[in-house]
Amino acid sequence: QHSEYENIAGTRFADQAMADRNHGFGGPWTEEKLDRVTRYLQAYTTALKNQPFQLMYIDAFAGTGYRASKQRGQTVRGFFPLPQMTELAKGSARRALEVDPPFDRYIFIEANPGRFQELNKLEGEFPSMRGRMMFKNEEANAAISEICSTTDWRRTRAVLFLDPYGMQVNWATIEAIGRAQHIDLWYLFPAGTVQRLLQREGKISAGWMNALDRLLGDTSWRTEFYKTVREPTLFGDRARQSKVADLSTIENYVRRRLLQVFRGGVARNPLPLRNSKGNCMYLLFFACGNPAPKAHGLALKIAQHLLKS
């Protein structure tokens, strides 16, 4: 149900994003992100267990609750072992449900009907948590915006894990999360997809330009990621766009944009998550919405420690 991204792409970008996602082999980087987020959830519920707030965990792309990992196969008649997708590792939803002390509420969002049906089986696997779980078969941006606008944040504190397949998250959604002021956000930003879209001379289709505007919130990336270069020709100077953005440029830009939204601050060291070829696929950002110095100071300290490579 991630039709907008897939329809716009219609290319290897959508295929790559899907292949690298939790429900496939993923790779060591998948475990890296889940390990860091889970450790933060554990620290979060422990730190707030005696506070007078209802604690909520929101998983915006919850999938099935499992991720298929690579398992070494059997050698058959001297041939090399084949990888098998028979070992199921815990995804973010299951890991969150195993945190102790637990959250008071869990909201799992998954737009894909098949994955959503599998996700609902968590109720049977965690019967003691059944009354705490809510499942939403909805588009993530709409579901998150509704949660942000209807929750009583005077009595609630939350952690939200945004783990999209690609460029599904609208910047308007990030702003809604920041306005709530009591949500700690873990955001897996699709840096690899953005890098691939940024053509060297700025020849990006109108559809992709609009998609990047929606992802990043405005058009300022166009002048930050490209510079105008003037070249002499037989008929005078010619102006052209030249790409100057690398991974560091994208990282700094997104972090500054997040700092404009989250009053509690943003971790200074987002974690680059790389595939087996060493290419950065995602940047794992942490942002804190709580403006209270004591609250965001501790949150940022824990997150920055967990994000160390």
Folded structure, characterized:
It contains 13 helices and 11 strands. The protein has helices spanning 3-9, 12-19, 28-48, 92-97, 113-119, 122-125, 140-150, 171-180, 191-197, 206-216, 221-224, 247-259, 293-306; strands at 54-59, 66-72, 83-90, 105-109, 133-136, 156-162, 183-189, 226-233, 236-243, 271-274, 280-288. The longest helix has 21 residues, at 28-48. The model is unreliable at 1-25 and 70-88 (pLDDT under 50).
In terms of topology, how is this protein built?
Elements: H1 3-9, H2 12-19, H3 28-48, E1 54-59, E2 66-72, E3 83-90, H4 92-97, E4 105-109, H5 113-119, H6 122-125, E5 133-136, H7 140-150, E6 156-162, H8 171-180, E7 183-189, H9 191-197, H10 206-216, H11 221-224, E8 226-233, E9 236-243, H12 247-259, E10 271-274, E11 280-288, H13 293-306
Order of helices and strands: HHHEEEHEHHEHEHEHHHEEHEEH
Radius of gyration: 21 Å
Shape: elongated
Percent in strands: 15-25%
Termini separation: 33 Å
Number of helices: 13
Please state the average pLDDT score: 84
Largest beta-sheet characterization: 7 strands, mixed
Side-by-side strand order of the widest sheet: 5-4-1-6-7-11-10
**How many DSSP-defined strands?**
11
Helix content: 25-40%
Unreliable stretches (pLDDT < 50, length at least 5) are 1-25, 70-88
Structural class: alpha/beta
